[in-house]
Amino acid sequence: MPHTTAKTASLVRAGFTGEVPATALPGIDRSGGLGLDQCTPEQTELRALLALACFNHGTLTAPRLRWRVGQIGAYDPVVSPRFDHLVLIVDACDNVALRLVGSSTDPHIAGMRVEERLGHHLWRLRHLPSGAQMYVSERNAFSSSQRRAQRLPNLRRRLSVEEPLTADEQDRLAAVPRISPSMKRLLAGIWVRMSLRDPDGSFDLGGWCTDPLRRTVERARRAPSSRLWGHEERWDLEWRGYPFPTDLIAALTHPAAGIEGVTVDRTSTHSWLVRLGDAELHLHDEEL
Description:
Elements: H1 3-17, H2 21-24, H3 41-54, E1 78-81, E2 86-90, H4 93-101, E3 112-117, E4 122-127, E5 133-138, H5 144-149, H6 167-174, H7 181-192, E6 225-231, E7 234-240, H8 245-253, E8 263-268, E9 271-276, E10 279-285
Parallel strand pairs: 2-5, 7-10
Antiparallel strand pairs: 1-2, 3-4, 4-5, 6-7, 8-9, 9-10
Helix pairs in contact: 3-7
């Protein structure tokens, strides 16, 4: 693919994801597509698991998926998916990385490990069951004086790649329902789009936490909460708070930045059916 084609595609992608073009460029696929969904099977596995972790929080959480990762969206995430790894750019990267990993006595995402901490602003994590790699990066580079003043977190109790799955982690993974290949692709695609926005301002998912478009209609009158649960090719995703359902549907079906092959049908005043291959994801807006 000519470099000029890739560079143009990276500018388009950055407009949707919030990446800077230089960060978006390595994720562009060989055909010049945006590359949001082109990845290894290991990455699809990890991203689907991240969807389970992040879309189960608050009072709606599925009982068997109380992993206590919390709202990553509160850290203003920019998701930068690549073919064979994943980059998550956030405010307070230490907090986010340790939320994903947990500790040796309280693991959060089962099998997630600290592979290396690179300076004060970058973590490399590895998911042992899939072998997939992800990076958690600080949004703003610190000045040298700030780097000297900041203390590194204590990693003594953090799980490293040398440590095998614990019995508790094995139990947590066993409690995860089977997910069909098409559903994994769909869940992975939703997760990498958690902060997708339209450059023209027609939608913005806001990390599933806020409304950057500052519309007059507010959501989350009660505490924001969500649940993702199902089996094989049939799953349900229900939530209170952000994003607006119309924003989510627009993001999934956008001709340039949506998931190829996805269709959406409204089934009631507060429910929609998202299809991808044999996968059926039922969306339920608990705010209405």
